Amino acid sequence: MEKRVYNFSPGPAVLPLKILEQAQRDLVCYPGAGCSILEISHRSKTFDKIILGAEANIRTLYGIPDNYRVLFMQGGAILQFGMVAMNLLRDSGKAADYILTGTWSKKASEEAATQGKINVAFNAKATNYNRVPKQEELKLDPNAAYVYHCSNETIQGVQYPALPNVGDVPLIGDFSSDFLSRPVDVSKYGVMFACAQKNAGPAGVTMVIIRDDLVAKSPANLPSLVNYKVFAEGKSLLNTPPTFAIYIVKLVTDWLLNEIGGLAKIAKINEQKANLLYDAIEQSGGFYTAHAEPNCCSHMNVPFRLAKPELEEPFLKGAAALDLCELKGHRSVGGCRASIYNAMPVEGVQALRDFMLDFAKKNA
């Protein structure tokens, strides 16, 4: 097998090697099916066990109450930006509150604005989206259709340390880049959604956790595939779902439950990994600086800049020579970015930390 690198890509991202090896075996012949996992029908008993098992695992990991549906959809987070507004805003006669803490919450607000009125309850644009708001900074409408926030901004590396208080208004959470990375009180949300390609599996499937009373609000005049109620009634099988991606979600959630021991344990591992990098940044004496403010630095995505921008290219080349790859930052933030999702081993982060400290020492 060709040598594997430490892949710090923001997504599609690293998966546990054990899962890739199991998928490799099942690619030719899935046990009991007599054919490839890519060839089984979504209406078969074999796939029924897979999708129900994936749902059961997600319910167990998050402790999801019985009055929530778990849906396996397509279209990624961007489709959900529009779907949430189609189903919960368009015919509500109300506005929706949007908390803008980065690129993806801004994009969500723009998509929602195609369907109804939105209110920007907070906007961190002035500081290039480097923080989440304090509670007293939120300008919330107590009669809003819902409040939207992004739990973790992949590009800016900003993560909510605690939920915003939105009263009785339904809270909508985009968890695309920190899904399954830490415990979450699902009962505080009306809707949680996440594309899979960060922590849960490959690109192609989007998980939606939605409360029953909000499912019931879906307008009847929506097309079936963007109607939460119709999709839920079809049990995620309204059309042919992304069967292989759901299969990988099942394997990932098996791994989290049986090998890691749940979300509280993976959260501790993720905190340990993040602290290695933030400590290296702090120890560098200003050679590196993190983009996000200290109280909301992400445990999933760590964007940082070098004090001397001309050293960024040598830094990236030096890292790649040590098999530390996909570290270039997003153009809107610049610098570098290390995405250290669940499947990134501690050893990979330690290797990056060591390289950062050595590079700073040699180039200070």
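Second entry:
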Amino acid sequence: MSGFDQAVARTLRERFDAEFGLAEWREPFFVQAPGRSEIAGNHTDHQGGSVIAAAVDRYVRGVVAANEDQVITIKSEGHSTSQIRCDELEAREDERNTSVSLVRGMAAQFAKRGFVPKGFDATLTSTVAAGSGLSSSAAFELELGQAMNVLWAKGVLSPEELAVMAQAAEREWFGKPCGLMDQAASALGGIQHMSFAVPGKIDAEPIDFDFADAGYALCLSAVGSSHEDLTDEYAAVPAEMTEIAHALGVERLGQTLEVTFAEELPLLRAEYGDRAILRAIHFFREERLVARRAEALRAGKMYDFLGLTRISGASSAMYLQNVSVAGSAEQPAMLGLAVADEMLGTRGAARIHGGGFGGTIQAFVPSEQAKSFCLGMDFVFGESSCQIYNVDHDGARAWRL
């Protein structure tokens, strides 16, 4: 069982009993959901494209038990308590961008599918830091989804179904126009090559590859910039891509051909401007690069994977333009990439990670250099800013205590 920690489960159970009283009669259970690392496919999922993503060994964990009320109460370590009534599940404008909106949104997804939400209590802890680029929101959603699945649906919903429900909660209740990659990676576990060509459907194929066996470490460096106040910058990326798609007569860029886009480029540029055009160019380029990187990993060709990753990283910076915020003198992610490139050269690769605009950069580092690489990044961005991650193979799941 990837990531199951008996000591953490015991501590959470003790916290649960202290917060809510002894729970033996309520059959408490343990739930955990991993964070995720985007290995390939930067801002392609929301356009019906492809990605490679991996669940990683940082988790939202909790102890959960039913109660006799119609109230869901979530006590997360280091955060304010989230509480909702099970008969009040409509999205609320004043809850946008809050964790309580995700509790309400996940419960609403179950109600939409004919399940009856009932009250429960939960104590949670997390090593998926908010703003870390590991998608703490998706891990939180899948933690809730697995708990609700056990309590209300007798565990019948698949990981793929829970991921789709989590995306809806984040888009419609939380207010972030995310794709489906984050939720799918946390739900499924392992390294997955995923296509989102059909809206609301995950076409996933596992990739049997281990970076450590190939002599490399997966390192993520937090560069000291949160993207919590950059929702508008993030939202502009899919919005501009979607504008181009609509102009081409489709809903998402993945539904048209690159040659069709190229033929209409002058007219599209005049109507929508250069940045939207550049972001569409990135989408088509990144689609090709995802396919080639998947082939490289399956063939065990790490050197080819690294070269393609460097090309992808350049595309994100130059064409997608999600590494720094225009007009800002603060460019921590770009600085992080520069420092990483100086240390790695062609022996590794570094790129923006996830949504971008600060947050986190990703690096593939030769194993023998991983410790010194992290020390170098820590020197610039602070102690423990750079960490080494391993793949979680199980994905979000629940265990009886």
